[in-house]
Amino acid sequence: MKKVYGLIRKLGVTSKYKGYYFLAEAIHMTMEFQERPIKITKDIYPCLAKKFKSTPMNVEHDIRTVINVCWETNKERMEQIAGYSLNYRPTNSEFVDMMAYYLKEEE
After folding, report:
1. Distance (Å, whole) CA 103 – CA 81
2. Which of 11, 54, 87, 103 has the fewest C-beta atoms lying within 10 Å of its C-beta?
3. pLDDT over 80 at 35, yes or no
4. Which domain, by its residues, includes 88?
5. Which long-range contacts (CB under 8 A, 24 or more apart) does 46-50 make?
């Protein structure tokens, strides 16, 4: 988890955002279950909502907020992580997948 938090911080997001923890957990879950398809809306959001005593809708919104911060403050770093030019802000599932893949490749 330390690598996940470090990568999120390098994108300009700190723990002052609730989505920071949601995003870190979502990335971690995706890395653990990379051998099978995982659906962010059916698998990740409900699980995180239960863990953090929130709702799936709030989890989705808070993760999207963090991704917007990353996009606005550190788009170049996001493109390095993605490995290609980003013409639009990634969706939540694209961002989580991109981060999980990047961290897996670093191992």
Report:
1. 9
2. 87
3. no
4. 2-106
5. 48/22
